[in-house]
Amino acid sequence: MTTDQDIEVLEMYDAGIRDMQEFTTNTDLSETAVRKILRAYGRTPDINNADAICKDYQSDMPVKDVLGKWHLNPATLYTLLDKKGVPIRAVAVEAQGVTETRKQTAVAMYNAGAKVSSIYVETGISPSGLYAELEKLGMPNRSTNNVRLTQLNKAVKMYIQMETLSVVYVATGVTSTVLYKALAIRGIAKRGYNVDVERLDKAVEMYCAGIITNEIALKTGVSPTTLYHELRIRGVALRGRNTSYPVEQVDMAVDMYRKGHTLGLIYDKTRIPSKALYQILVARGFELRP
Questions:
Q1: Weakest-pLDDT range from 33-37, 47-51, 204-208, 258-262
Q2: Where do the domains of the chain lie?
Q3: What is the pTM of this model?
């Protein structure tokens, strides 16, 4: 929500004011608060004391100390250094034990919800280094799939307990790709193709009746991938994108047809066209009306 202070800061910026001292004097806000408001609304504050910041960096002051002293984030600092032509310092070679400890701290902070920039300031582990470490450990990246470690652990446990991939996904949000990667890293073997025939028969029957694959998976435990594989083996033609409907919708359409309602009324109520309805009725063994 935009506050009066936000508006005041933005109006000053849009009026051409760039001196941070003028901002703080006229708004009673700290420099950090002013910069936060400007960044939140897509304004880039001019960096005061740029030469002093570069001097501190060139004097081998630790990066996290430079950031803390001048209230900067890493991206702003390195953008300034590049603009001023200041060469980036080489990263000192550390003992393996020290590096591993910093990586473990970075991963723990990431799993606790800390921002990547804060992790970098605290541990010196860059975002690319952090993401590489997460991938090595089989831990998903928040920026791509928003899966937390607790969800991944739950997904692995459900998989070991013989839950299907579709049920695991619905319960945890963990995709099969992420799950299989975690299983491989943890040394857990993938299951074979072990769906019983009775459930496959039910899944194929529901598919032919026009039920969407997500509902089939929930009711039978047969994943869409397994179902499509079985349909090809049985020579069942795959439906188009727009011929799958929720089970309640299909049941309503069939019941209305059985009661003698017109195809037009059925379509108005269920949005199932006549061609799809006929396919569903035939699959369920209904005799079509003349």
A1: 47-51
A2: 4-57+71-81, 96-137, 145-192, 198-283
A3: 0.28
